[in-house]
Write a structure and sequence with these properties.
With 61 residues, the chain is mainly beta. The chain contains 1 helix and 5 strands, in the order E-E-E-E-H-E. It has a single domain, classed as SH3 type barrels, CATH 2.30.30. Helix content is 11%, strand content 41%. Strands 4-3-2-1-5 form a 5-stranded antiparallel beta sheet, covered by helices on one side.
Length: 61
């Protein structure tokens, strides 16, 4: 399992329809809340799907 904290940037396995694949973690719990850094879309996923959604944690820039 990947260790994720609120405020971190993560890279998803698949690209979003807007073309971006970098997301910011907004909330952690039973559900995870991600916001797309490209278009701002907010997505909430259950923990089981969120673990499959994340490819890796992005490096700090």
């Amino acid at each position: 399992m990947i260790e994720i904290a609120v405020g971190q940037k993560v890279i998803s396995k698949k690209t979003h329809p807007c073309g971006g694949n970098v997301w910011t973690v907004e909330r952690i719990g039973t559900d995870f809340k991600f916001s797309c850094d490209t278009c701002g879309r907010v997505v909430m996923l259950p923990r089981s799907k969120a673990e499959k959604f994340v490819k890796k944690v992005a490096e700090n820039e």
